[in-house]
Write a structure and sequence with these properties.
With 805 residues, the protein is mainly beta. The chain is built from eight helices and 43 strands. It has a 26-stranded antiparallel beta sheet that branches. The chain has a five-stranded mixed beta sheet with strand order 1-7-8-5-6. Strands 2-3-4 form a three-stranded antiparallel beta sheet, with no helix packed on it. It is elongated and about 110 Å long.
C-alpha cells in the first residue's frame, strides 16, 4: 500500500519532465559547446564564468548526464578527475572525496549547493537528478566564499529554469539484473514575461542486485519518489524572486556486505566466506524536504542577493551490526534534522576593473538522534568473553575470577540533541591590471556546537565467582544498570583567506596560481556512547561485586578465615575491580580539521574552439586530520584527530570536437595522499598505533575516463534526426581501505556504452553498464575483528525513453 501511495504522490506532484529546447543548441558546428554560454545560471557570489576563474572546475551538462547515465551524484565520479563518490550501498553513506580530502562518517569535507541553497548534512547528498540542468564541481578549498565543510571542494547542482525551457517531457527507464524502473514527468511553463513555473515528479524502484544467503532475499531493493516545484517571478526589471520546494522519499535495503574472513587469528565461520549472510534485515528510510527563496535585486552598481533555505530530514536506519547469522547486536538510528540558512550577498556588476563580492551567512540546525543498541544472546556471550578477558590471571595464587551476565539480551538506549549555530562574514576582490587579475579574499567563520546526551544500559542480571580454594565466593542474580546524562558545548572560530593571480593570454585562455585555506568542522562521536554506557554498566557491576564480596568476607571472618587472607582479597578486589573513569568530553569530542591548498593551473580553448583543456597541479597540507578509528571494543568506528597529511597531484580534462560527427572527452587525476603524522593512541592490547607515511585510505591514487560519441545525421525531412553511438571507459585505483594499508583495491576500470536515436520529439537510448562485467570492491571495512566488503554491480543493460511535447 505504501508503495502505491508513493507512486501516486510522485505522479500528482508532476506535470512533466526534462523539457529541452533543442533549438538553443547549435546543430551544425565543429566547436566545443561552452555550457556557460548556452545556459545562463545566476551565481550570487562568483563574478565571472567558472572557467575564467582561478580554480579547477568541471562542468557537467544535461547532455553529459544523459550520455553517461548520471542519475545521482555518485554517477558523476566517472567524468571528473580526482573526484570519487563510491557506491557504499545506501543513500545515508554519501561519502565524497576530492584530492584525497573526504569523510565517511560525521561532517562532510565537500560542500553541496542546490540552486544556491546549501545542503548542510551529507545524509541528503544522494538524491535523484530527474530535473537537473547542470552540475559544477569545484576542486580545492572553497572556504572564503562558501565556508565550513568545503575543504575538499564544492558541488553546485542547478535545476532547469522555466524561463529558459518550456514544454513537457516524460522519461521512462528500465534496467536489467535489478529490474530497475523509473519514470519522471515535468512541465515547464512560461506564463508571461514576468512569471514562469515548473512542476515535476519521479518514481524509482529496484529489486536489487545482491542476495542474502541466510534467507535468499535481495538485500538492496529500493523504492523512491518525489517531486519539485519552482516558480520565478520578475515583478520589475531589476527584481527577481526564485522559489523552490521539493520532497524526496526513499525506502531501501542495502548494506550488502560480503564476509571476507577474520583479520587476525584462526578462521571462524568458513562456510560464510564470500557470502552475504545476516539474520536481521538491514534497511534505510528517508524523507527529505527542501525549500528555498532567492531574492535578487540589481542596482546600478551592484547586485544584491538574499537566499533563504530550509531543510527537513527524517530518516531511520536499522543495521545488523555483526553482518552475520549470529544474534550479536543491532543498531537502530533515527534522525530528525531541521536546518534554516540565510545568506545575504552583494557583488559588483560585471565589466569593471575591480570586481568584488561581500556578504554574511548564517545557519541554525537542530538535530535529534535516537540510536538504541540491542545485544542478543550471541552478543551477551561476546560481552562475557570481553569482560572476563580483562580479569587478572590469579592462577599463581591458586585462585580464579569470572563473571557471567545471565540476561538473554541487553538494551542500550541513547538520545541526543546536537544543535549547531554558525555565522560568517566574507569578502573577496579581484583587480584587473591589463592581462593580470589579482584576487584576495577573507572569511571569518564562527561556529557553536552543543550536545545534550542521555545514554543508559537497562537493568541486567549477572553472576560472579571468586574461587579462592576452600571457601569460594559465589554471587548470584546480581543486578546492575547505568545512565549517562549531561551537556557539552564547543565554540570554534576560523579565518579562511584566499590569494590568487591569473594571467589572461587572451579572452579564452588563462593560467593561474592560488593559495587558499579550508576547514572541516568539529563535532561529537555519538557512536561512542554505547561503549561509554557499557563502561558505566561495568562500574555498576564492580560496585555490586565489591559490596557482595565484602559481605561474604565479613561472614568468612566470623567463620575463622585468617584476616591476612581477607585483607589480601580486599586489596586484590580494589586493585582489579576498581571503577573505570569515564571522560565524556575526551572520548566524544573531535576538533576541526583544516588545510592549505597551493595550486597552479590553466583553462585553454584551442584550435578555433575545437578543444577545451583544463590543467591543474596542487599540493594540500592538512592539519588535525579527522580519521575514522575503531573503538577499543572493535564494535564500530569514531572520528579522531590523528595528526597531519599531505596530498599532491595533478589533473587534466580534455573536450574535443573532431568533426560534426565525432566528439571525444578524456580526464585524468593523480593524487598522492599520505599521513605525515598519525598518532591516535593505542589499541585494546596497548599496541601503539602510528601509521605515519602510509597512504590515506579511501582515496584512489588514479582516476581517469575516456569517451567518444559518433553521430549520424539524417535528412531534415526524415522522421529521425540522428543516431549516436557512444562508449565511455572510467577507472580508479589503487585504493587502500585501512590506515594500516594492509587491504586494498587495485586499479580497475569499467566500460559503458549507449546507442541513442533522436527523433523530432522522441529520444530512445539503449545503454549498457560495466560491459566487461568487471568484478571489484567498492568498499571495505572491519568490525569485531572481521572483514567485510561491498562488491561492484554486474553487467547491466537498459533503455531510456524520452518524449517531449
Amino acid at each position: 500500500m505504501r508503495k502505491r501511495i508513493l507512486f501516486a504522490t510522485s505522479c500528482l506532484l508532476a506535470a512533466t519532465a526534462f523539457a529541452e529546447d533543442i533549438n538553443t543548441l547549435p546543430k551544425d558546428t565543429t566547436k566545443v559547446i561552452d555550457i556557460e554560454e548556452v545556459v545562463v545560471i545566476a551565481s550570487p557570489k562568483e563574478t565571472g564564468k567558472l572557467r575564467t576563474l582561478p580554480t579547477a572546475v568541471s562542468l557537467i551538462s544535461q547532455k553529459d548526464m544523459q550520455a553517461n547515465q548520471i542519475t545521482s551524484l555518485k554517477d558523476a565520479s566517472a567524468l571528473v578527475p580526482n573526484f570519487f563518490m563510491p557506491d557504499y550501498g545506501s543513500r545515508i553513506t554519501s561519502a565524497v572525496y576530492i584530492r584525497g580530502i573526504g569523510s565517511r562518517i560525521n561532517t562532510p569535507a565537500v560542500g553541496l549547493y542546490v540552486d544556491n541553497i546549501p545542503y548542510i548534512d551529507k545524509s541528503a547528498f544522494d538524491f535523484n537528478f530527474f530535473d537537473i540542468e547542470r552540475i559544477d564541481i569545484l576542486r580545492g578549498p572553497q572556504g572564503t566564499l562558501y565556508g565550513r565543510n568545503t575543504m575538499g571542494g564544492l558541488i553546485k547542482v542547478h535545476t532547469r529554469s522555466p524561463f529558459s525551457y518550456q514544454g513537457t517531457d516524460v522519461k521512462l527507464s528500465y534496467g536489467t539484473k535489478s529490474n530497475h524502473r523509473s519514470a519522471s514527468l515535468t512541465h515547464y511553463h512560461r506564463w508571461s514575461d514576468s512569471f514562469a513555473f515548473s512542476a515535476g515528479g519521479y518514481y524509482e524502484g529496484s529489486d536489487g542486485f545482491f542476495r542474502n544467503s541466510y534467507n535468499r532475499k535481495k538485500v538492496d531493493d529500493m523504492e523512491a519518489g518525489g517531486g519539485r516545484i519552482r516558480a520565478i517571478w520578475l515583478p520589475s526589471e531589476n527584481l527577481k524572486l526564485d522559489f523552490t520546494v521539493g520532497y524526496d522519499y526513499s525506502d531501501e535495503g542495502g548494506h550488502s556486505y560480503y564476509y571476507t574472513g577474520v583479520i587476525n587469528g584462526e578462521e571462524d565461520h568458513a562456510d560464510l566466506l564470500n557470502k552475504i549472510s545476516y539474520n536481521n534485515e538491514s534497511t534505510y528510510r528517508r524523507g527529505l524536504l527542501n525549500a528555498g527563496l532567492n531574492i535578487e535585486y540589481q542596482a546600478q552598481h551592484f547586485i544584491l542577493s538574499a537566499i533563504t533555505g530550509f531543510q527537513n530530514l527524517n530518516d531511520r536506519m536499522f543495521l545488523d551490526q555483526d553482518f552475520s547469522p549470529l544474534d550479536t547486536y543491532t543498531l537502530e538510528q533515527k534522525q530528525r534534522i531541521n536546518t534554516l540558512t540565510e545568506e545575504i550577498t552583494l557583488k559588483s556588476k560585471p565589466g569593471k576593473a575591480w570586481q568584488w563580492t561581500t556578504g554574511a551567512f548564517g545557519f541554525y540546525q537542530t538535530l535529534r538522534t535516537e540510536s538504541p543498541v540491542n545485544f542478543g544472546k550471541d552478543g551477551m556471550a561476546f560481552l562475557n568473553q570481553t569482560i572476563n578477558s580483562h580479569f587478572p590471571d590469579l592462577s599463581a595464587m591458586g585462585m580464579d575470577m569470572s563473571m557471567t551476565m545471565t540476561a538473554e539480551g541487553l538494551h542500550i538506549p541513547s538520545y541526543f540533541k546536537t544543535p549547531t549555530l554558525s555565522g560568517a562574514l566574507f569578502h573577496q576582490s579581484t583587480l584587473s591590471l591589463g592581462k593580470w587579475d589579482l584576487t584576495a579574499g577573507l572569511r571569518l567563520e564562527y561556529e557553536h556546537i552543543q550536545m545534550d546526551y542521555t545514554s543508559a544500559c537497562d537493568k541486567t542480571t549477572f553472576d560472579f565467582m571468586l574461587n579462592s580454594g576452600r571457601m569460594p565466593i559465589k554471587l548470584e542474580n546480581m543486578e546492575a544498570s547505568s545512565q549517562l546524562t549531561g551537556k557539552l558545548k564547543n565554540d570554534y572560530t576560523q579565518l579562511l583567506p584566499k590569494f590568487a593571480v591569473k594571467y589572461n593570454i587572451d579572452s579564452k585562455n588563462t593560467v593561474y596560481a592560488s593559495v587558499s585555506k579550508g576547514y572541516r568542522s568539529g563535532g561529537y562521536n555519538l557512536q561512542m556512547f554505547s561503549d561509554l554506557a557499557q563502561t558505566g554498566l561495568q562500574n555498576s557491576m564492580k560496585s555490586e561485586i565489591n559490596q557482595g564480596v565484602g559481605t561474604k568476607l565479613d561472614a568468612f571472618e566470623q567463620m575463622g578465615m585468617p584476616s591476612s587472607i581477607i585483607s589480601m582479597i580486599k586489596e586484590m578486589m580494589t586493585k582489579y575491580l576498581g571503577p573505570t573513569e569515564t571522560d565524556v568530553r575526551a572520548t566524544t569530542v573531535y576538533k576541526p580539521e583544516y588545510s592549505w591548498n597551493y595550486e597552479v593551473g590553466s583553462h585553454l580553448t584551442l584550435f578555433n574552439g575545437k578543444l577545451q583543456a583544463d590543467l591543474a597541479a596542487f599540493y594540500m597540507d592538512t592539519r588535525d586530520q579527522q580519521i575514522a578509528k575503531f573503538v577499543n571494543s572493535g564494535m564500530g568506528r569514531i572520528t579522531v584527530n590523528a595528526g597531519k597529511s599531505e596530498s599532491y597531484g595533478a589533473e587534466m580534462s580534455l573536450l574535443a570536437s573532431i568533426s560534426r560527427n565525432l566528439n571525444m572527452n578524456a580526464s585524468y587525476g593523480y593524487t598522492h595522499s599520505t599521513f605525515k603524522k598519525y598518532d591516535v593512541g593505542t589499541t585494546s592490547s596497548d599496541e601503539a598505533i602510528d601509521y605515519s607515511g602510509n597512504y590515506v585510505p579511501f582515496v584512489p591514487r588514479h582516476t581517469m575516463s575516456a569517451g567518444a560519441d559518433y553521430s549520424f545525421f539524417f535528412n531534415k525531412n526524415s522522421w529521425a534526426q540522428s543516431l549516436t553511438f557512444g562508449l565511455n571507459y572510467s577507472a580508479a585505483g589503487k585504493i587502500y581501505w585501512t590506515e594500516k594499508n594492509d587491504v586494498s583495491q587495485g586499479f580497475y576500470g569499467t566500460l559503458n556504452g549507449r546507442v541513442s536515436l533522436q527523433a523530432q520529439a522522441l529520444q530512445i537510448d539503449l545503454w549498457g553498464r560495466n560491459l566487461t562485467n568487471k568484478d571489484y570492491t567498492t568498499f571495505y571495512f572491519e568490525s569485531m575483528s572481521r572483514g567485510f566488503e561491498q562488491k561492484s554491480k554486474p553487467i547491466q543493460f537498459g533503455v531510456d525513453i524520452r518524449y517531449r511535447f
